[in-house]
Design goal:
Radius of gyration: 27 Å
Shape: globular
CATH topology of the largest domain: Rossmann fold
Structural class: alpha/beta
CATH architecture of the largest domain: 3-Layer(aba) Sandwich
Helix content: 40-55%
Number of strands: 10
Distance between the termini: 62 Å
CATH class of the largest domain: Alpha Beta
Largest sheet: 5 strands, parallel
Length: 495
């Protein structure tokens, strides 16, 4: 500890002060102010650092989110390992009014960590509310004049065969007097326009019905605000904000997977809005039935509405996207350059925009004309890396069909022989034919970690190298085939 603590910080209180400073340095001043300052009491023993809190909810939250940072901070100050222990401190409970939640608030069984018995101080509550952006002006929009404007509109959306159904469904939410479906659930890969449609709905509603209220928020913000509402005893305000709006648009709804209490809260929110004839619009990177650890109740609600997929844009649509973006950049781009970019960049709208931006920037920096030669030079590296011959969605579909199971089964936690074999082939093919990292593949295959993906891929590699004989239970009974033959058949089907 000597040399790590200043000469004037040798008392126990000074050491605790230094540890607090070290924690703040690691997690940031804002998070420290929200979760630690005036909310915790540190007590140092020989080999432990006790982090005292006011209730079990806060204890569980801090332990799951900041345990590593607290341990690192203690080690940096003390010069030795010191295990942090999070526990309820009676001294922090004193003087605070006790309360209990109605069971309907968090009905999920076994969720005792989310039933705090005490309230946070009003000062900390105010800081939490402000810092987390609970106010409508930061993460959501209620009245258009009260917060930031969303930048994406229907006018800027390029409609093609891949997204026409989703676009028309989104427009009908605003143009029809009574929405024909609730919810509207839009799903598809990254950078294909899901967020654009959600923001377009909100902006169109603002223009056509100025008195209507609406919320646009990510599922992560919904979850964070729900947790903070629990912590600060502001559930009524949170629920009023979410349930008394004419339109609720939530992006990346798959974020709620594996969060049962937040899912339950959202289910009640959806039911309240639906019964009141108000609209819910959702976006996700997967079909509701392919989102693992999503409650069956929510899945049933989602599929009861309009579920529509956005696919990768075709060549004609990609060309039009490039033309629109060139107009935004205020650049004159020849048609042959636009065709060249659209023909070589096929995965997403963001990729097209990035390619066009690179070409125009390259021409500007090289003081050259924007022509085909310039485009080839600017995009040489992108093209050299090559486009993936497959995408994960196609891989999943082909593998599921081949082994006679569903894509949902591949995403699930089932470990029977057929499902495990199919899942391992998905992991192997995704690593071989896409640019996705192991972590990305794992997340999209049902929140598996990267180590699971590596192990599954390695197992298939070994079986292919040995051309092992594999057997599994298909719809027509037991099947047997060589590993290389399976791989050849799968790759042929996918292409």
């Amino acid at each position: 500890m000597q040399g790590l603590v200043r000469d004037d910080c040798r008392t126990a209180d000074s050491v605790i002060c230094a540890i607090n400073d070290a924690i703040a340095e690691r997690i940031g001043q804002q998070k420290f102010r929200i979760w630690f300052k005036n909310s915790t009491r540190l007590t140092l023993t020989d080999d432990q650092l006790k982090v005292g809190v006011a209730n079990q909810f806060i204890s569980t939250w801090l332990e799951s989110h900041f345990q590593v940072q607290v341990a690192d901070a203690a080690k940096a100050v003390l010069g030795r390992d010191c295990r942090p222990v999070f526990a309820v401190d009676s001294k922090l409970i004193g003087g605070q009014k006790s309360f209990t939640f109605n069971e309907n608030i968090i009905p999920a069984p076994g969720s005792s960590a989310l039933t705090p018995k005490t309230a946070q101080s009003s000062q900390s509550a105010s800081a939490l509310t402000l810092a987390a952006g609970v106010s409508a002006g930061q993460t959501t929009q209620t009245r258009p004049a009260q917060g930031r404007n969303l930048k994406l509109t229907f006018d800027a959306f390029v409609v093609g065969r891949s997204n026409e159904l989703a676009y028309n469904a989104a427009r009908s939410i605003v143009t029809d007097k009574q929405s024909p479906f609730n919810p509207l659930f839009i799903h598809g890969g990254y950078g294909l326009g899901k967020t654009h449609l959600l923001q377009g709905i909100c902006n169109e509603l603002r223009s056509s019905r100025p008195t209507a209220t609406w919320q646009y928020i990510s599922a992560e913000d919904f979850a964070n605000q729900f947790v903070l509402a629990l912590k600060t005893r502001k559930l009524d305000a949170f629920r009023h904000r979410m349930r008394q709006t004419d339109l609720l648009a939530i992006d990346d709804i798959h974020f709620l997977a594996s969060k049962p209490s937040t899912q339950e809260e959202f289910l009640y929110t959806f039911n309240t809005l639906d019964l009141a004839g108000r609209q819910v619009v959702l976006a996700s990177d997967a079909h509701p039935r392919e989102i693992t650890q999503l409650s069956e109740k929510l899945v049933n609600r989602f599929v009861s509405g309009m579920v529509v997929r956005i696919d990768t844009p075709d060549f004609k649509t990609r060309c039009e996207i490039c033309r629109r973006y060139a107009g935004i950049l205020k650049k004159s781009v020849p048609e042959e350059v636009i065709s060249y970019i659209a023909d070589n960049l096929k995965r997403s709208i963001r990729e097209l925009q990035g390619g066009l931006l690179k070409v125009t920037a390259y021409a500007s920096l090289q003081n050259a004309k924007i022509d085909l030669a310039t485009a080839r030079a600017a995009m040489a590296e992108l093209i050299e890396r090559g486009e993936p011959t497959m995408n994960l969605s196609n891989i999943e579909s082909a593998v599921a069909e081949y082994f006679g199971i569903t894509v949902s089964a591949i995403h699930s936690s089932k470990k029977d022989k057929t499902v495990a074999l199919a899942r391992h082939f998905c992991m192997f093919l995704a690593r071989k034919h896409t640019r996705m990292s192991s972590s990305e593949i794992g997340r999209l295959l049902g929140d598996k970690n990267h180590a699971t993906v590596l192990v599954g891929s390695k197992k298939i590699e070994e079986q292919i190298a040995q051309n092992a004989q594999l057997n599994w239970q298909g719809p027509t009974g037991n099947r047997v085939c060589q590993a290389k033959a399976i791989l050849e058949q799968l790759e042929g089907n996918i292409r």
